[in-house]
Protein backbone atom coordinates (compact mmCIF):
# COMPACT_ATOMS: atom_id res chain seq x y z
CA UNK A 1 0.00 0.00 0.00
CA UNK A 2 1.30 3.42 -0.97
CA UNK A 3 0.76 5.70 2.07
CA UNK A 4 -1.20 8.83 1.21
CA UNK A 5 -2.82 10.21 4.36
CA UNK A 6 -0.82 11.40 7.35
CA UNK A 7 -1.93 8.46 9.48
CA UNK A 8 -0.92 6.03 6.73
CA UNK A 9 2.50 7.64 6.62
CA UNK A 10 2.79 7.15 10.39
CA UNK A 11 2.59 3.41 9.77
CA UNK A 12 6.05 3.60 8.24
CA UNK A 13 7.66 5.80 10.89
CA UNK A 14 8.09 3.36 13.77
CA UNK A 15 10.16 0.23 14.40
CA UNK A 16 9.43 -2.57 16.87
CA UNK A 17 12.74 -2.91 18.72
CA UNK A 18 13.39 -6.31 20.31
CA UNK A 19 16.13 -6.98 22.85
CA UNK A 20 16.88 -10.08 24.93
CA UNK A 21 14.78 -8.68 27.77
CA UNK A 22 11.74 -7.35 25.90
CA UNK A 23 10.62 -4.90 23.25
CA UNK A 24 9.86 -1.24 22.78
CA UNK A 25 9.30 1.34 20.09
CA UNK A 26 11.73 3.32 18.00
CA UNK A 27 10.96 5.96 15.38
CA UNK A 28 12.79 7.32 12.37
CA UNK A 29 13.98 10.90 12.57
CA UNK A 30 15.95 12.92 10.04
CA UNK A 31 18.48 15.37 11.43
CA UNK A 32 19.38 18.11 8.99
CA UNK A 33 22.96 19.32 9.00
CA UNK A 34 23.54 21.82 6.22
CA UNK A 35 22.23 20.23 3.02
CA UNK A 36 22.46 16.70 4.46
CA UNK A 37 19.74 14.60 6.05
CA UNK A 38 21.05 12.11 8.59
CA UNK A 39 18.52 9.37 9.45
CA UNK A 40 18.49 7.98 12.98
CA UNK A 41 16.31 5.79 15.18
CA UNK A 42 15.16 7.45 18.40
CA UNK A 43 13.96 5.57 21.48
CA UNK A 44 14.26 5.56 25.28
CA UNK A 45 17.40 4.51 27.09
CA UNK A 46 15.47 1.96 29.11
CA UNK A 47 14.23 0.27 25.91
CA UNK A 48 17.84 -0.66 25.17
CA UNK A 49 18.47 -1.54 28.83
CA UNK A 50 20.68 1.52 29.41
CA UNK A 51 23.32 -0.25 27.32
CA UNK A 52 25.10 1.92 24.76
CA UNK A 53 25.94 -1.21 22.73
CA UNK A 54 22.62 -3.04 23.01
CA UNK A 55 21.89 -5.37 20.07
CA UNK A 56 18.37 -4.94 18.67
CA UNK A 57 16.24 -6.94 16.25
CA UNK A 58 13.59 -5.32 14.06
CA UNK A 59 11.99 -5.41 10.62
CA UNK A 60 12.30 -2.80 7.88
CA UNK A 61 9.98 -2.18 4.95
CA UNK A 62 11.56 -2.35 1.51
CA UNK A 63 10.72 -0.60 -1.78
CA UNK A 64 9.53 -2.16 -5.01
CA UNK A 65 10.70 -0.99 -8.43
CA UNK A 66 8.25 1.90 -8.33
CA UNK A 67 9.47 3.15 -4.95
CA UNK A 68 6.39 1.90 -3.07
CA UNK A 69 6.56 -0.22 0.09
CA UNK A 70 6.72 -3.93 -0.67
CA UNK A 71 8.05 -6.63 1.65
CA UNK A 72 9.94 -6.71 4.94
CA UNK A 73 13.42 -7.75 6.00
CA UNK A 74 14.50 -8.83 9.47
CA UNK A 75 17.52 -6.98 10.84
CA UNK A 76 19.86 -7.67 13.75
CA UNK A 77 21.83 -4.57 14.56
CA UNK A 78 24.79 -4.18 16.92
CA UNK A 79 23.87 -0.58 17.46
CA UNK A 80 25.97 2.18 18.97
CA UNK A 81 23.38 4.10 21.00
CA UNK A 82 24.14 7.73 21.78
CA UNK A 83 22.56 8.73 25.10
CA UNK A 84 21.08 12.10 26.06
CA UNK A 85 22.98 13.40 29.07
CA UNK A 86 19.84 14.03 31.17
CA UNK A 87 16.66 12.63 29.60
CA UNK A 88 15.61 9.02 29.01
CA UNK A 89 16.37 9.36 25.30
CA UNK A 90 18.89 7.90 22.89
CA UNK A 91 19.45 7.39 19.18
CA UNK A 92 21.54 5.37 16.77
CA UNK A 93 22.53 6.04 13.19
CA UNK A 94 20.50 3.93 10.77
CA UNK A 95 22.16 4.61 7.42
CA UNK A 96 24.51 1.60 7.90
CA UNK A 97 21.39 -0.58 7.91
CA UNK A 98 20.14 1.00 4.70
CA UNK A 99 23.48 0.39 3.01
CA UNK A 100 23.63 -3.23 4.22
CA UNK A 101 20.11 -3.95 2.92
CA UNK A 102 21.06 -2.46 -0.45
CA UNK A 103 24.28 -4.48 -0.59
CA UNK A 104 22.87 -7.80 0.59
CA UNK A 105 19.34 -7.80 -0.85
CA UNK A 106 19.65 -5.22 -3.68
CA UNK A 107 16.72 -3.34 -2.19
CA UNK A 108 16.18 0.06 -0.61
CA UNK A 109 14.47 0.62 2.72
CA UNK A 110 11.10 2.37 2.70
CA UNK A 111 10.64 4.62 5.71
CA UNK A 112 9.04 7.94 6.59
CA UNK A 113 10.97 10.01 9.09
CA UNK A 114 9.92 12.84 11.34
CA UNK A 115 11.90 16.06 11.29
CA UNK A 116 12.56 19.11 13.40
CA UNK A 117 9.69 20.91 11.64
CA UNK A 118 7.20 18.66 13.47
CA UNK A 119 8.43 19.72 16.91
CA UNK A 120 6.51 22.83 18.01
CA UNK A 121 8.35 25.75 19.54
CA UNK A 122 7.13 27.42 22.73
CA UNK A 123 4.95 29.90 20.84
CA UNK A 124 3.10 27.11 19.02
CA UNK A 125 2.69 25.13 22.25
CA UNK A 126 1.08 28.11 23.92
CA UNK A 127 -1.41 28.37 21.04
CA UNK A 128 -2.74 24.93 21.93
CA UNK A 129 -5.54 24.32 24.39
CA UNK A 130 -5.13 22.65 27.78
CA UNK A 131 -7.01 19.57 26.54
CA UNK A 132 -5.83 18.23 23.19
CA UNK A 133 -6.58 14.83 21.65
CA UNK A 134 -3.43 12.80 20.98
CA UNK A 135 -2.38 9.78 18.92
CA UNK A 136 0.41 7.42 19.95
CA UNK A 137 1.98 5.01 17.47
CA UNK A 138 3.87 2.00 18.76
CA UNK A 139 3.78 -1.54 20.11
CA UNK A 140 1.89 -1.78 23.44
CA UNK A 141 2.70 -5.07 25.21
CA UNK A 142 4.58 -5.95 22.03
CA UNK A 143 1.42 -6.05 19.88
CA UNK A 144 1.83 -5.44 16.17
CA UNK A 145 0.70 -6.61 12.75
CA UNK A 146 3.57 -9.03 12.29
CA UNK A 147 2.46 -10.07 8.79
CA UNK A 148 2.58 -6.54 7.42
CA UNK A 149 5.03 -5.06 9.97
CA UNK A 150 2.67 -2.32 11.14
CA UNK A 151 2.29 -0.61 14.54
CA UNK A 152 -0.75 -0.07 16.77
CA UNK A 153 -2.49 3.30 17.07
CA UNK A 154 -3.74 4.48 20.50
CA UNK A 155 -5.58 7.66 21.49
CA UNK A 156 -5.40 9.84 24.59
CA UNK A 157 -5.36 13.43 25.78
CA UNK A 158 -3.03 16.03 27.20
CA UNK A 159 -3.27 15.95 31.00
CA UNK A 160 -1.83 19.42 31.48
CA UNK A 161 -1.37 22.42 29.19
CA UNK A 162 1.23 21.64 26.48
CA UNK A 163 2.65 25.15 26.79
CA UNK A 164 3.44 24.80 30.50
CA UNK A 165 6.15 22.48 31.81
CA UNK A 166 4.91 19.86 34.25
CA UNK A 167 7.09 20.13 37.39
CA UNK A 168 10.30 19.94 35.38
CA UNK A 169 11.66 21.77 32.38
CA UNK A 170 10.76 20.06 29.12
CA UNK A 171 8.25 17.62 30.62
CA UNK A 172 4.67 17.19 29.43
CA UNK A 173 1.92 14.94 30.81
CA UNK A 174 -0.53 12.79 28.86
CA UNK A 175 -3.52 10.67 29.85
CA UNK A 176 -3.22 7.56 27.70
CA UNK A 177 -3.23 3.78 28.03
CA UNK A 178 0.53 3.23 27.87
CA UNK A 179 1.83 -0.29 28.42
CA UNK A 180 5.31 -1.86 28.32
CA UNK A 181 6.32 -1.83 24.68
CA UNK A 182 4.91 1.68 24.22
CA UNK A 183 8.16 3.20 25.45
CA UNK A 184 9.74 5.24 22.70
CA UNK A 185 6.45 5.74 20.86
CA UNK A 186 6.00 9.11 19.14
CA UNK A 187 2.91 11.05 20.23
CA UNK A 188 1.12 13.46 17.89
CA UNK A 189 -1.76 15.86 17.66
CA UNK A 190 -3.36 14.45 14.53
CA UNK A 191 -6.21 16.25 12.78
CA UNK A 192 -6.25 15.05 9.19
CA UNK A 193 -9.31 17.12 8.31
CA UNK A 194 -7.85 20.35 9.65
CA UNK A 195 -7.37 21.87 13.08
CA UNK A 196 -8.55 24.86 15.09
CA UNK A 197 -6.42 26.43 17.80
CA UNK A 198 -7.82 27.72 21.09
CA UNK A 199 -9.03 30.89 19.34
CA UNK A 200 -10.98 28.73 16.86
CA UNK A 201 -8.63 29.78 14.05
CA UNK A 202 -8.53 27.12 11.33
CA UNK A 203 -5.01 25.84 10.76
Class derived from helix and strand content: mainly beta
Q: Give the biggest sheet.
A: 6 strands, mixed
CATH H level, superfamily name of the largest domain: Trypsin-like serine proteases
**Chain oligomer state:** single chain
Mean pLDDT: 92
CATH architecture of the largest domain: Beta Barrel
* Low-confidence parts: none
Short description:
With 203 residues, this protein is mainly β. The protein has three helices and 13 strands.
SSE blueprint:
Blueprint: H1 6-10, E1 14-19, E2 22-33, E3 36-43, E4 55-63, E5 69-78, E6 82-83, E7 90-93, H2 95-105, E8 109-110, E9 114-115, H3 122-126, E10 133-138, E11 152-158, E12 174-176, E13 187-188
Parallel strand pairs: 2-9
Antiparallel strand pairs: 1-2, 2-3, 3-7, 4-5, 4-8, 6-7, 10-11, 10-13, 11-12
Amino acid sequence: MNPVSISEQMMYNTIRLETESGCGTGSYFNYKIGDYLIPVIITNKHVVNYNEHEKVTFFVHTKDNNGNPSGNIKIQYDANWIFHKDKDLCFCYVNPIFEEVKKRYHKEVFYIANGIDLIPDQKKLEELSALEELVMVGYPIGLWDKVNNFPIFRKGFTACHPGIDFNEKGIGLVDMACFPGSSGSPIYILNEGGYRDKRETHI
